[in-house]
Amino acid sequence: MSASSAPLAIQMHAGDNVAIIANDGGLPANTVLPSGLVLRDKVPQGHKVALLDIAQGQAILRYNVPVGYAKQDIAGGSWVHERLLDIPAARELQDLPMASVVQPQWEPLQGFTFEGFVNADGSVGTRNLLAITTTVQCVAGVVSVAVERIRKELLPHYPNVDGVVGLEHTYGCGVAIDAPGAEIPIRTLRNISLNPNFGGEVMVVSLGCEKLQPDRLLPAGSFPIQDLREPDAALDTVCLQHDSHVGFVSMIDDIVARAKPHLERLNARRRQTVPASALVVGVQCGGSDAFSGVTANPAVGYMADLLVRAGATILFSENTEVRDAVEQLTSRAATPAVAQRIIDELGWYDQYLDRGRADRTANTTPGNKAGGLSNIAEKAMGSIIKSGSAAISHVLSPGNKLKSDQKGLVFAATPASDFICGTLQLAAGMNLHVFTTGRGTPYGLAECPVVKVATRTDLATRWHDLMDMNAGRIADGQITIEEAGWELFHLLLDVASGRKTWAEKWKLHNALVLFNPAPIT
Ligand code: CA
């Protein structure tokens, strides 16, 4: 049965008093649903219909959780749009359930492998990239010219190297570099330079007079992969203001020449069979709609549980999208100490939003609302499903890097902004990225493959050469959430082994965007 044929309303939980209309284009008034309910209004696709009469002040239940309170009486069969709802109050960060959920007892998943690039510190890359770290935005233009020359002139001689990436950003000078909070962008840049997809080859381009000096960005001993190989290696830095550079071309020549030994070492590497436990998968969503929490995100959640069973690491993030479901997180923490770390991170973020005179209603976009998501409470319930059902084993502060023994489900606290979340997950050590979208976004990263999952068949069909998987088939009744989760799990192993994503084929690269809570000067 296809979504566009028979009327289809999806109820997430038996206790819900609303369901989501699945049909393409929505359904007109007077349509009779399979339950016999008659629609009083035209209801757009992805939007909610009242399954019974709801009195003013009563909770609107989706996922058996209040996503709002009725501002007026709502008759069964009515379109329940955002203007009819009051948003539920934010959950206080006190008296939360701490590590109260009994942890699932799962059979370990064994025997699943992929072909990856093993690094000296035991981490594994899914791509073999030369990354050029920059200390300051001033050098970005020069680095991009040099990267283009390396791509054209050098890469054809190093066929085992997948590409060269300039780690460009807007930080480095004109910033209050000693202010509280400045450590976040600095450690983010440091840890991105050490991402497993770069093979431990650290190479830096600096201007010379900037606040973020190379030895502050990467102090001696902070690049462990390279240290293991060459314990006495100095940081390989090209300084544009150095006296030896006479003119622009000499700068470019210098960067290109310095890249060669790195490329030679990277080129000598080969993919090896490694267990699936070497995967560090960052999950996030962007351009969400009401189907995100029905199709793509539950499939990602099932896949996340499979990866945890296989011994891998899952990073889930997006503070403002989990804040309204905080008690789900604290109760699922593996220990009370992990639960407290979740509270500390979200409490810090509440204060950060307060300082900017923003609150949680700042999340949800016009597109979210047009897609049927009334408010952040509803969006949060659909977003958090991406984390599956495993116990939360660790919590990472923004910009910090996972330690090698930090496996399982990890809450990496980040803003929900797609670019900042992706950037911080790269710093955490992500070697593969899963991105779900309902409204549609052509998101991609140069540093790491991004597997995009569409929430609706309509989007997957129109964007057939941008979406890597169509989870809309769940709403169409073609596959189950479990089948979609397994399909995604196998797709991830293929992509980790070198199969290109659509974003890689088209070379779609969004900018790195640093999270800088400190002042600009
Ligand atoms: Ca996001």
What would you note in describing this structure?
The protein is α/β, with parallel strands linked by helices and 521 residues long. Among the domains are: 1-89, Archaeosine Trna-guanine Transglycosylase, Chain: A, domain 4 (Roll); 114-270, 3-Layer(aba) Sandwich (Rossmann fold), CATH 3.40.50. The chain has helices spanning 140-154, 183-193, 214-217, 224-229, 248-267, 296-309, 319-322, 326-332, 336-355, 366-370, 376-384, 418-428, 457-462, 472-475, 481-496, 502-505; strands spanning 9-10, 18-21, 48-50, 59-62, 65-70, 79-80, 85-86, 113-118, 124-125, 129-134, 163-167, 203-206, 236-239, 272-275, 280-285, 313-316, 392-396, 408-412, 432-437, 450-454, 469-470. It has a 7-stranded parallel beta sheet with strand order 17-18-16-15-19-20-21, with helices on both faces. Strand 20, helix 13 and strand 21 form a beta-alpha-beta unit. Helix 1 (140-154) crosses helix 5 (248-267), helix 6 (296-309) crosses helix 15 (481-496) and helix 8 (326-332) packs antiparallel against helix 9. The longest helix is centred in the middle third of the chain and has 20 residues, at 248-267. The model has no long low-confidence stretch (mean pLDDT 94). Calcium ion is lined by residues 284-286, 318, 416, 418, 421.
